Amino acid sequence: MVMMMAPGGTRDMCRLVLDEGADAVYVGVVGWSRRGAEHELSDDEIRHVIDDAAARGREVRIVVNTLPSSTEIPMFIERIVQYAGWGAKGFMISDVGCMRLVKKLLPKVAVHTSVGCGVTNFEDVRFLRDNGATHVVLPYRMTVEEIAEIKQKTGVGIEVFLFKTPSGGKICPGKCMMSSYFSYRRWLDETGKDHFYGSASRGGDCLRVCQTEWDFGPDDSFIRHGMTIKTNPALWLDELPAYLAAGVDCLKVPGRDRSDLLVRDIVRFYRRVLDVIQGSDRPDLSGFRDELLVFHQRWKVERGIRDNRLIGEAEREARRVERAQVSAKNFEVVI
Amino acid sequence: MFELSTNVASPQQLRRGDFSAYDALYLGEFSCLSYPNNFCAHPEFLAEAVAQVYELGKKAYLRLFAVPSNHDLPTVRKVIETALALPFDGFEVHNLGLLQMLKEMGNTKPIHLGVFGNLYTDATARVVKDYGVTRVYPNPELSLDEAIYIRDNTPIDVLIPVHGKIPLVVAETCFIHENSGGLPGEDCKFKCSQEHWLTRSSGDWSLKDTGCMTLSGADLCMLEHVDRLAAAKLNAFYVQSHGESPEYIAKVGRIYRDAFTRAFAGEAEGDVAPLLEELSGLAKMGLCNGYYFGDAGRRYVGRT
């Protein structure tokens, strides 16, 4: 039976997706997941979500998928042990070293690799399996045939996003540092936790610089104007029966940084879709297509608002640093 | 004392270039198998190449393709099989699955983990060390202090890039091909032989694109910090030169060879302003220090 995992970007979102039939909810820990703090939960909230899910016979996955500093690892492990003690059944992790440590310490928990692992082939999956992964999330662009081959050659739990990039543009995330190249700031908080503003891999938000307008071409003769660097992924539907037949174990609904209501409606939609697929040998999904188009539109609107906010932040941060540098130079001149 | 290395993609570049300033060469263009005569995709060129590099008195490391799909694995396997029988000094691996493959193929040569190996922690360094990795190229987002921490606490050698554009993105598809009218599956027209740039329509942001890889617009430059690198007992340095001219490779190599030679001999670095000017002249979009000092990759922090 495939497991549908839904996002819990807020406590309300967690409750709503469980109401709508998600088998598990995944929640980010403040400072430890690849999203900004407003889409992560505090420890108190996480404890409540774990209790609520357990009462309904559902599970919680804790997202701790930043690529941490070496010195943060003891703190990382301490948290994992705490959440496992509260009843969390699994963790989403990017750093292979941390993955191996967690599996050694808590052999019974599920370890999902994060998309940050940047898997491209079945040998990658074997490597991750051998180092503690129980479930491997595959990138958006893999075909059904590739997924089937990976499942057959590795036997590991396969997780896919209900989200894929139709074509074009750079791969993202896992192998992208564009955001932090333009805007990045590092600081330690009072607990000794490292924070990396501008780096999605390290727990700051990706500032979506790929979504601003770029000109592109050889030397100075641009062949494209006002383009984005990356095509945005979209929710998908028709390939779902084939994916399940290929051996997918876990479907991940995206949207930790979307509105509670949009995520609730998406989960409700996919619950119905999955019930139809699982109730028939030849499921007919044509009746869901129009509804999917509406979700595409709602998603696009929310994404646009968020992208503009983040790009604005990237610009402000860049200007702040420039001003600070100018002030420092002026100070040197005065001295 | 120290090793200065750079990269060479093909036999033509190996013949044409002046690598006299370097101690070691990484052979192959790891981001694109279709790159013309790429060592990563052409086992038939490897024997001659390794012989040529030895004739130059240098070490030869073979780079393996960074983002192989299931479909590409047989090509990579063939390259590894050929290289195992040749006197390469090591492999460079970016894809963790290939560590598994090398282990199963009985490799005993040292392995270097490349930039897209996504190495952020000493915990991960210990994992890859178990697969034969002896040197790691820490993710560019790491500060110099973090790289040193990994070296000391794993322990493992670290490769420190000192000059050249910073690899920021690697993709499975070619951005140049896609955006210049090329269709999926259509033969590559090697338009990457011309420099391609991404420039923000309304600002000063720029990136260089080589098709399957996006690089920083500015050139990483650590010339002003050579003393500090030597004092930290770092000893493996790298000039990223993919997409650069033979003149660039020779000139940058010479500047850093001289600077490190002085630094390791305990001599003061002196006035580097004229050399910085020379390096600036080679960098279309200016110089930066990457993330070494905890700042955004494109910033430049002077010695003072």
The overall pLDDT average of chain B reads 95
Classify the oligomer.
heterodimer
What pair of chains forms the biggest interface? A-B, 77 and 68 residues
DSSP helix fraction of chain B: 25-40%
CATH superfamily of chain A: Aldolase class I
Taking strands numbered 1, 2, ... along the chain, how are they ordered across the largest sheet of chain A? 5-4-3-2-1-12-7-6
CATH topology of chain B: TIM Barrel
Our count of helices of chain B gives: 10
Topology (SSEs and partners):
The complex is a heterodimer of chains A (335) and B (304).
Chain A: E1 3-7, H1 11-19, E2 24-28, H2 43-55, E3 59-63, H3 73-86, E4 90-93, H4 96-105, E5 110-113, H5 122-130, E6 135-137, H6 144-154, E7 157-161, H7 178-182, E8 185-188, E9 194-197, E10 214-218, E11 224-227, H8 240-245, E12 250-252, H9 260-278, H10 289-334
Parallel strand pairs in A: 1-2, 1-12, 2-3, 3-4, 4-5, 6-7, 7-12
Antiparallel strand pairs in A: 8-9, 10-11
Chain B: E1 3-8, H1 11-16, E2 24-27, H2 46-55, E3 59-63, H3 73-84, E4 90-93, H4 96-104, E5 111-113, H5 122-129, E6 133-136, H6 144-153, E7 157-158, E8 160-170, H7 175-179, E9 196-200, E10 206-209, E11 213-221, H8 226-231, E12 236-239, H9 246-264, H10 273-282, E13 287-288
Parallel strand pairs in B: 1-2, 1-12, 2-3, 3-4, 4-5, 5-6, 6-7, 8-12, 11-13
Antiparallel strand pairs in B: 8-11, 9-10, 10-11
Provide structural commentary:
The complex is a heterodimer of chains A (335) and B (304). In chain A, helix 1 (11-19) packs parallel to helix 2, helix 3 (73-86) crosses helix 4 and helix 5 runs parallel beside helix 6 (144-154). Chain A has helices spanning 11-19, 43-55, 73-86, 96-105, 122-130, 144-154, 178-182, 240-245, 260-278, 289-334, and strands at 3-7, 24-28, 59-63, 90-93, 110-113, 135-137, 157-161, 185-188, 194-197, 214-218, 224-227, 250-252. Chain A has 335 residues and is α/β, with parallel strands linked by helices. Chain A has one domain: TIM Barrel, CATH 3.20.20.70. In chain A, strand 2, helix 2 (43-55) and strand 3 (59-63) form a beta-alpha-beta unit. Chain A has an eight-stranded parallel β-sheet. Chain A has a two-stranded antiparallel ribbon with strand order 8-9. In chain A, strands 10-11 form a two-stranded antiparallel sheet. The longest helix of chain A is centred in the last third of the chain and has 46 residues, at 289-334. Chain A contains ten helices and twelve strands. Chain A is globular and about 65 Å long. In chain A, 42% of the residues lie in helices and 15% in strands. In chain B, 31% of the residues lie in helices and 21% in strands. Chain B has helices at residues 11-16, 46-55, 73-84, 96-104, 122-129, 144-153, 175-179, 226-231, 246-264, 273-282, and strands spanning 3-8, 24-27, 59-63, 90-93, 111-113, 133-136, 157-158, 160-170, 196-200, 206-209, 213-221, 236-239, 287-288. The mean pLDDT of chain B is 95. In chain B, strand 9 (196-200) and strand 10 form a beta hairpin. In chain B, strands 1, 2, 3, 4, 5, 6, 7, 8, 9, 10, 11, 12 and 13 form a 13-stranded mixed β-sheet that branches. At the A-B interface, helix 4, helix 5, helix 6, helix 7 and strand 10 of A face helix 4, helix 5, helix 6, strand 8 and helix 7 of B.
